[in-house]
Amino acid sequence: MKTTILQHSNIQTHSLSKFHIIELGCGDGSKVEKFLLPWVKSKENISVTYHPVDISKHAIDSLIQRLNQTMGESIVKEYVKPICSTFDRMYTQLNIDSLAVQVVMLLGSTIGNFSSFDSNHVKFGENSPVMKLFQSVRSNLKIEDW
Questions:
Q1: Of 35, 58, 108, 131, which one has the fewest beta carbons inside 10 Å?
Q2: Is the pLDDT confidence value at 9 over 70?
Q3: Which residues contact 78 (CB under 8 A, 6 or more apart)?
Q4: Beta-carbon neighbour count of residue 31 at 10 Å?
Q5: DSSP label at 117?
Q6: Helix (H) or strand (E) holding 27
């Protein structure tokens, strides 16, 4: 997955590249570990920051505890910058260099927490909560983002 993202991010040189991995609805972090390890253990000159986002402080705390045990506290302190927030407000808390590549992920069942019906009961209507989430994410992505 890392190789695919690097190949398709329109980066001419991978040296000094910055990536921000943003996981919406991170839960306890059990799904992201295998994805994250190749990034933080990379020998390439790639700067990566993992931003787990969840509305639950308990979920964030569980994720940090889990990653501390599996990856080590020093790695977590260097690479993990959690955000306890709603998804529509998280972008105000992200500190992302405009040249950095964003990788936004929904790995678990988080998407199921959003209604797909709008106020007129139209499935996937543009005002449905799930479509508003997608619109918010899309409006904050650049061409080379994922």
A1: 58
A2: no
A3: 40
A4: 15
A5: B
A6: none
